[in-house]
Write a structure and sequence with these properties.
alpha/beta, Spore Coat Polysaccharide Biosynthesis Protein SpsA, Chain A, 8-stranded mixed sheet, 5-stranded mixed sheet, 13 strands, 17% strand
Length: 349
């Protein structure tokens, strides 16, 4: 059995925190520690953590003497973990049954492969109207169902070599560069990382709201990645998420423009890039912008779409417009079935 650390940073999380802890304690795997970094909360968070840690010796609570940034608190939660492998977690998310035992098998499978420093697992979502999107996990094959049926989920949350893909590091060819840019990378709740490699990589960058995916992109320039294509956690979608605020304030756009410029410079130091690779790096932030515009169009918010578009550089506008022609129908198809059971304001809070 592998000792797995779970890093859970929290600030004023009394709304969902106990449910998150319950889902961890209900796992069929006991060789873990839960490290919770309380970012000097002012609600009932500290009271909840005091009671839960007293009842469970696997829970270790650390309270910051003053509130720090979200990124710093996440980094501190990792630094205080003792395990070689760390499952990152959020206070408003849920760990599905079988998560830790599946991760134990995945970690064992890469124990002789030190190049692999990141394990990602599939994303699944819980919406505010208690609809769960858990792709391909019900016996009847449905993807969307009431949260009360969560216990009916067909057990695919087991390590299965047929659901595993390993991505090797390096940017030695155009195809590898293309694959890295298009590759699914985990968010916090769907990521497991080697502690030492994470620290050596500089941890999460305080400059970015989307610090998780950006950190993985940088790490995978030198390290390898195992993707376990099964959902092991539920990500709760709600209006108080940092990513939602970043979308509304267009911080997502600023982050992507700055990061991909920096990332391209890092790659160029390693090798000369061809025209195709340069073009893909150039288009990456514009693709993000077109995706955000498409979301506003799907919501029916023409003014919101125009607000995003009109704030862009005039030279990039024609390219963004062309990308919207591709991304809008894709986004519409992506949420078509989901919109039958979840209202648009809950899909895009």
């Amino acid at each position: 059995m592998n000792f797995i650390s779970i890093a859970l940073p929290v600030y004023n999380g009394d709304n969902y925190l106990e449910e998150a802890i319950d889902s961890i304690e209900d796992q069929d795997y006991s060789h873990y520690e839960l490290v919770i970094l309380d970012n000097h909360s002012t609600d009932r968070t500290s009271e909840i953590l005091k009671a839960r840690s007293a009842a469970n010796p696997r829970i270790r609570v650390i309270r910051n003497p003053a509130t720090v940034s979200q990124v710093e608190n996440v980094n501190l939660s990792v630094l205080n973990c003792k395990g070689e492998w760390i499952q990152l977690f959020c206070h408003d998310d849920i760990m599905l049954p079988g998560c830790l035992s599946s991760l134990d098998k995945a970690i064992s499978a890469v124990s002789n492969d030190p190049g692999i420093t990141l394990i990602g697992h599939g994303a699944a979502w819980l919406f505010s109207n208690d609809v769960v999107h858990l792709p391909g996990t019900l016996v009847d094959g449905s993807e969307y169902f009431s949260r009360t049926r969560l216990s009916d989920a067909y057990v695919v949350r087991k390590f299965d070599t047929s659901r595993v893909k390993i991505y090797r590091h390096g940017v030695g060819s155009k195809q590898e560069l293309k694959e890295k840019i298009q590759l699914y990378l985990p968010a916090l709740t769907t990521a497991v990382v080697r502690r030492d490699a994470f620290i050596q990589n500089g941890m999460f960058d305080h400059r970015y709201v989307h610090f998780d995916v950006f950190a993985w992109m940088k790490m995978l320039m030198e390290k390898d990645y195992l993707l376990l294509d099964i959902p092991l956690t539920l990500t709760r979608i709600h209006g108080m998420q940092v990513a939602v605020d970043a979308r509304k304030t267009q911080r997502t756009i600023r982050d992507n423009v700055d990061f991909w410029k920096e990332y391209a410079g890092m790659i160029r130091k390693k090798q000369k890039l061809g025209l195709q690779s340069e073009l893909m790096l150039y288009l990456k932030p514009m693709s993000t912008i077109s995706g955000l515009i498409s979301v506003e169009l799907v919501k029916g918010d023409i003014k919101g779409a125009w607000r995003i578009f009109s704030n862009q550089d005039i030279l990039s506008m024609p390219v963004i417009a062309l990308l919207v022609l591709r991304s809008y129908p894709r986004e519409k198809r992506r949420i078509e079935k989901l919109a039958e059971v979840v209202p648009l304001p809950l899909i895009y809070p």
